Amino acid sequence: MKKNWPLWEIFVRSKNGLEHRHFGSLHAADAEMAMENARDVYTRRNEGVSIWVVESKNITASNPQENGEMFEPAQDKVYRHPTFYDLPDEVKHM
Amino acid sequence: MKNQNLYNYILTIADNSLILAQRLGELCGHGPNLETDIALTNISLDLLGQTRSYYQYAAKIAGENKTEDDIAFLRIEREYKNCLLVEQPNTHFGYTIGRQFLFDVYHLMLMEKLQNSADEILSAIAKKGIKEVSYHKRFSSDWVKRLGDGTEESNAKMQEAIDDLWRFTDELFFMTASEKEMVKEGIGIDVSIFKEKYYEEVSEILKEATLIVPENKYFTKGGKEGVHTEHMGYILADLQYMQRIYPNMTW
């Protein structure tokens, strides 16, 4: 048996209608325990109405060493933001 | 006091929560890992919340400007009416879980009955407590199964805890004179009605956890009438220290 429990990522929806957001991570032996631990660690102050747990190893993350090719090309392409036209005053909240 | 029986009855229920909360509180910062530490502390706080509701009600009945704090902090050992089970020490994590499990199964059955009490306040406290206690039971029975059906060592420790604590379970169903009076008035719960169901449910979970259901028929009691085990004095020393050294101090 491994000495350490695997790591789990915890996603909590704080209100109906909102999306689940990453709240943090914790250790647990399996999904059921991860769920109970998440309930106790992250929703004890009434933060949530729904919890997702996913074992961290199942997440594929981008490699920080590849940040150059991954993200830098987007930095000078401001024209990809839809800001180059005038909005009529009647349209609010855009 | 006019309503001595009701006062006593409230304490019989509330003192279990207070003392168990205090026991669990001792583990704050000392749990086996961060997650379980917080879980146990949450349970402790749930129980303390319930205790406060009961004590506020009891203080009102007692009159004479008594407060919930007087009841919590300024009684002598013989005046505490909790059962012996909840005052047993946190010997090891299996013990803490075993004690919690044997109490939670009982506690939930009691709350389910108490919500129909003729006393509106007790009924309201029970209704609110049911969700909390359901989770406590889920947490403790899950851990009984994990430890029982875990490694050879965790199984042995869980079995040891259940074997040791078993002798305190019968007291849960012992009824004091005040309790019997309250049952007559429709306020108190006749706990003997769910005794059989209790042992059935506990046995079922123990079997699922690959543990042996103790056949020990030697039981001990006394707590509900104020006769406690040797552990109680130490708990109260911790619990009462601040109020005894600095009378009337507040946070």
Written overview of the protein:
The complex is a heterodimer of chains A (94) and B (251). In chain A, 18% of the residues lie in helices and 22% in strands. Chain A is built from two helices and three strands. Chain A has helices at 31-42, 67-71, and strands spanning 7-13, 20-27, 50-55. In chain A, strands 2-1-3 form a three-stranded antiparallel beta sheet, with helices on one face. The termini of chain A are far apart. Chain B has one domain (4-245): Up-down Bundle (Ferritin). Chain B has helices at residues 4-25, 34-62, 68-73, 84-87, 93-114, 120-148, 152-165, 177-184, 195-208, 232-245. At the A-B interface, helix 1 of A face helix 2 and helix 6 of B.
| Cα shape of chain A | flat
Strand order of the largest sheet of chain A: 2-1-3
CATH architecture of the domain at 1-58 in chain A: Roll
What is the arithmetic mean of pLDDT of chain A? Answer: 89
Number of strands of chain B: 0
Order of helices and strands of chain B: HHHHHHHHHH
Average per-residue pLDDT of chain B, rounded, comes to: 95
CATH first level of the domain at 1-58 in chain A: Alpha Beta
Please report which band the strand proportion of chain B falls in: under 5%, 5-15%, 15-25%, 25-35%, 35-45% or over 45%.
under 5%
- List low-pLDDT spans of chain A: none
Task: Give the helix proportion of chain B (percent range).
Answer: 55-70%
Poorly predicted segments of chain B: none
Binned, the helix content of chain A reads 10-25%
Q: Specify the oligomeric state.
A: heterodimer
What is the CATH T-level topology of the domain at 1-58 in chain A?
Answer: Ubiquitin-like (UB roll)
Biggest β-sheet strands, sense, barrel of chain B: none
